[in-house]
Automatic annotation (TrEMBL):
This is 5-dehydro-2-deoxygluconokinase. It holds the Pfam family PfkB. It comes from the Bacteria. The gene is iolC. One of its GO terms (molecular function) is ATP binding. InterPro entries: Aldolase_TIM (IPR013785), Carboh/pur_kinase_PfkB_CS (IPR002173), DUF2090 (IPR018659), Myo_inos_IolC (IPR030830), Myo_inos_IolC-like_sf (IPR023314), PfkB_Carbo_kinase (IPR050306), PfkB_dom (IPR011611), Ribokinase-like (IPR029056). Belongs to the carbohydrate kinase PfkB family. Keywords: ATP-binding, Kinase, Nucleotide-binding, Transferase. Residues 327-634 form the DUF2090 domain. Its EC number is 2.7.1.92. It is an enzyme of class 2 (transferase). Residues 9-323 form the Carbohydrate kinase PfkB domain. Transmembrane segments: none annotated.
Length: 636
């Protein structure tokens, strides 16, 4: 099979685990109070990182038949990694790693890998046709430490050789995983061992590319003198050797080893402030493989590798810190201007928007995050407020039934509040719906948040929930009013950037001010000038010319914006139909987010006791389905 016919660029075989990173930077691991959960393991990180960079990557490993195993599978799938050969082990648990960030030189970590799933891979798990379907196979050194995994690796390498598959080794030396330290000492990076050296040297001849730090080449070559170690490796392998030199970059050796590292092909590294060295090697390997497999030459491949490593060491975590191709290319164009990638607003934004889970091409959103309006309905109907959570669940049921009847999978969304809708929020979480949740104090002007500080709120929110912030804003407000509202919206935006939640900014002009499409265009322009780039906008119906201008505006300031949804404001169905038609030609308008026009009358009747649960669901569903059909028929 020629490279042109191969469906995969890369198969990664080795460790895949869950990383639990301490969130209190500067604390001892003993004192960490909370942890962030990420995909980890060197091979898992490389599969993830190369997929983000645009390669067609696949994962060959095992995970446990439990929540952490499913998490790893879903994370890999989310970035486009093929998981057809990621085997679910029915008997073993997924490996865990617990890590801390004490300072730039101290990174305590503990590997929980006793009889773990990824170390249970067997030669029978490796299929020749699968290996043959890739251009390259990447192995990490840990799997050479155990007789069973070693045999599986050798099986894969033999299949690769027979089928013209490039073979790459990341030495990835972890003494604790070779049994050279106490189980709790995962931090030690180098211990000399003639036994480990012998086991590595026995397989070096299988590879076309070998990558490691100076210390990793020391263990592979059996000497703590780097040149001597490289020459020993060369005696066992004709592979291209890439020696990582930290901030100095890396050196490439294709033939004989010279007398000095500087006499190799040296590509200078990128200088950045270090937050976390853990995972930097996996990022380096990901960038290197991008250039290597795309045939871009060692200068370009190593530039990618050095920059990927620099970006990851400046961030928390490893897999989530991996750059996208667009982000990496932007960074390489201006590395000298970005000494702190973690503080560069352009890079921060590109990382945020080019690594998001998914896009939504169309949205039919049933909004029932209303609080004050439903409280008023309850009072008028002499109903107890305890009925409102029940009503919210019934509205959700109407949306769920509509989804099935209208085949709205991947196109349906809801706005649900946490005040009366927490039960509905809990039910719909994890179901693949578009879900937004409000934070504003209903009716507040100037803007106030319903439950206080935004950062303390988002800590407990599922990451899939989109932050919806409604602001009653007018570009001709007094300077005092504008600044107060703008500062709070900026704070909300920055909190979402930090937490990873998407932000939907809903803008409504106050009723006591002049209202026109032009005022909305000026408002969006103002927020963009402030550096606020919401993932979504929610706006009222505008005319076709205004939508065209807004689309141009959004594409100028944030071409990665997910889009706009049209709000309802309790408008009639006729008014909504006209609004939909005006937006028919706008690619930026993805759908509608309408509430009271759909649920208001049925809800009043239910709160008054005039109709049953089933009837309120039927009526809401009928109104919602009618609006979906109206949206689908929109035309100028």
């Amino acid at each position: 099979m020629s490279n042109r016919d191969k469906k995969l660029d890369l198969i990664c075989m080795g460790r895949v685990a869950v990383d639990l990173y301490g969130q209190q930077i500067g604390a001892r691991l003993e004192d960490e109070a909370t942890f962030a959960k990420y995909l980890g393991g060197s091979s898992g990180n490389v599969a993830y990182g190369t997929a983000r960079l645009g390669l067609s990557s696949s994962m060959l490993a095992r995970v446990g038949d439990e929540h952490m195993g499913r998490f790893l599978r879903e994370e890999l799938t989310r970035v486009g990694v093929d998981t057809s050969n990621l085997i679910t082990d029915p008997e073993r648990l997924t490996a865990l790693v617990i890590l801390g960030l004490k300072d730039e030189d101290t990174f305590p970590l503990i590997f929980y890998r006793d009889n773990c799933a990824d170390m249970a891979i067997t030669p029978e798990d490796v299929k020749e046709d699968y290996i043959a379907s890739a251009r390259a196979l990447a192995i990490t050194g840990t799997h050479l430490s155990n007789p069973q995994t070693r045999e599986a690796v050798l099986t894969a390498l033999n299949y690769a050789r027979r089928n013209d598959v490039k073979r790459a080794l990341d030495i990835d030396y972890r003494p604790v995983l070779w049994g050279l330290t106490s189980p709790g000492d995962g931090e030690t990076r180098f211990i000399p061992s003639s036994e480990v050296t012998a086991k590595l040297q026995a397989v070096l001849g299988h590879f076309d590319l070998i990558v490691g730090t100076e210390e990793e080449f020391h263990i592979a070559g059996g000497s703590t003198d780097t040149i001597t170690a490289l020459r020993a490796v060369r005696e066992h392998s004709a592979a291209t050797l890439v020696c990582k030199r930290g901030p100095l970059g890396c050196a490439v050796f294709e033939g004989d080893i010279p007398n000095d590292l500087d006499d190799g092909i040296n590509i200078i590294g990128v200088q950045v402030q270090v937050m976390n060295v853990l995972g930097a090697g996996d990022a380096f390997m990901s960038g290197l493989l991008r250039g290597y497999l795309n045939g871009e030459g060692w200068q370009k491949a190593c530039s990618y590798a050095n920059a990927c490593g620099a970006l990851v060491v400046s961030r928390h975590g490893c897999a989530p810190a991996m750059p996208s191709a667009e982000e990496l290319d932007d960074y390489l164009r201006r590395t000298e201007l970005v000494p702190r990638p973690d503080l560069d607003k352009r890079l921060q934004h590109l990382h945020r928007v080019t690594t998001r889970d998914r896009g939504w091409q169309e949205l039919n959103i049933l909004a029932f995050d209303h609080r004050s309006q439903l409280e008023k309905m309850s009072i008028e109907a002499n109903a107890d407020l305890t009925q409102l959570p029940i009503l919210k669940n019934l509205i959700l049921r109407a949306a769920q039934e509509s989804r099935e009847e209208l085949n709205l999978q991947g196109k349906i969304g809801v706005f649900i509040d946490g005040t009366y809708g927490q039960s509905a929020l809990n039910e719909i979480s994890g179901q693949g719906w578009w879900v937004a949740r409000p934070i504003e104090l209903p009716g507040s002007r100037p803007l106030r948040l319903e439950h206080g500080n935004i950062g303390s709120q988002l800590v407990s929110w599922p990451i899939e929930q989109i932050v919806k912030c409604l602001v009653f804003y007018h570009p001709d407000d007094t300077a005092e009013m504008r600044l107060e509202q703008e500062n709070l919206v900026r704070e909300v935006y920055q909190a979402c950037c930090q937490s990873g939640h998407d932000l939907l900014l809903e803008v409504i002009l106050p009723t006591d001010k002049p209202r026109s499409d032009e005022h909305y265009i000026r408002t969006l322009t103002r927020f963009y000038h402030l550096g606020i780039k919401p993932d979504w906008w929610k706006l009222p119906p505008l005319n076709a010319v205004s939508w065209e201008r807004i689309e141009k505006l959004v594409n100028e300031y944030d071409p990665h914006c997910h889009g706009i949804v049209i709000l309802g404001l309790d408008a009639s169905m006729e008014a909504l139909e006209n609004g939909f038609n005006q937006a028919a030609n706008s690619k930026m308008v993805k759908g509608f987010a309408v509430g009271r026009s759909i649920f208001s009358e049925p809800s009043k009747a239910w709160l008054s006791g005039d109709i049953s649960d089933d009837e309120v669901v039927t009526r809401i569903k009928s109104n919602y389905c009618h609006l979906v059909n109206t949206w689908n028929k929109r035309a100028l």
